[in-house]
Amino acid sequence: MATISAVQTPVAESHGYEATKSERLVALDVFRGATIAAMILVNNPGNSSPYAPLEHAKWNGWTPTDLVFPFFLFIVGVSLVLSFQARLRRGESKRDLVLHSIKRSAILFATGLALNFSLPLSTWRLPGVLQRIAVCYLAAAVITLYSGVRARILWVAALLIGYWILIAFLPVPGYGMPAKDMPLLDADRNLGAWLDRLVIPGRLYEVTRDPEGILSTLPAIATVLFGVFTGEWLRSARSASTKVAGMALAGVVLVSVGEFWGTWFPINKKMWTSSYTLFTAGAALLCLAAVYWLLDVRKVQGRWTQPFAIFGSNAISAFVLSEILAIFLLKLRIQSGGRILNGQAFLYRSFFSGIQSKPFASLLFSLAFMLACFLPLWWMYRKQIFVRI
After folding, report:
1. 50 phi and psi angles, rounded to 5 deg
2. Distance CA 267, CA 300 (A)
3. Could you report the per-residue pLDDT of 92-126, keeping only the tens digit for each?
4. Contact (CB, 8 A) for 9 and 313
5. Among 236, 313, 291, 303, which Cα is nearest to 8's?
6. With the C-alpha atoms ordered 142, 145, 146, 149, is the resulting torsion angle positive or negative?
7. Which of 13, 100, 286, 374 has its CA 20 to 30 A from that of 265?
8. Which residues of the chain have pLDDT under 50?
């Protein structure tokens, strides 16, 4: 089960282990915190007209919002390395780490199921964000523990190329061949959507398909493995300047290869295409390289980093809290002006609807929602309370 600790090393705890001060990677905590804050921001708009960068791409292509989830999975991979290395140094065996990973994965998966729970059971959505994190974390943990760098590279290649072959070259039962009988990435007639409708009981997020479905989990595992490679690079004996240059170069290469592959296998977040996996991993590397250079190399730190460190120190708690608050507001019923409104609509109408610019009003609501989530996290941070799974 989840545990609550009160310790003196909040940044280390957010890595999942008790690190010494010299081992701290401030950049990772800030990057994690900024990512979870962005996730809360884009998941909770005040109305249906947010600024375009705060919306997901309708289908093919990408927006800044489409970078948020893969960034978090990438960070999971980086943190996994830091945690495992520390535990192995303390004398834990690989078997211990596998059992620990299974436990963490099960708790995350169950938490995601609880957040999605609804009656009747036919409306219960089984896939979800935490469920994908759980599965990808466990798969990457086992691969990392029992394979070397070369084998992991082969794993990434197999996951990305194998997924491409499945989606682009296998006929979809009842529909035919992709790119011949229907568009290559047809929203409802691709192999992933067909498999989700066939296998997954209950409700799919988009009725006929689910962005956290079965097949698209395969390349998402590769996203975590890219984080694993990065964590090992950061923990190597190389100089700081070499680490920054290496991450930046790898980031440029992956972004370029992702864009190039996207010509034939389009960048698509909802299907987590192989090109999207490479592109977002490259973008994550570039962002982490910049933050690492700024915070851990140049030591440009101050009060401006603390809000991100607070979000990052209880990242999963922040996400769960935001989901609970969103569910509560949507289920709350308030009579206003002769109408029955849910809590979110009531708050938006009461405080933000008078703003002439609808996108700006939506942004202000999202920021207010994020602040509401931040305040209990800030209290937990001050009390040195960190929820660990």
Report:
1. -75, 170
2. 35
3. 999 999 999 999 999 999 999 999 999 899 999 99
4. no
5. 313
6. positive
7. 286
8. 4-22
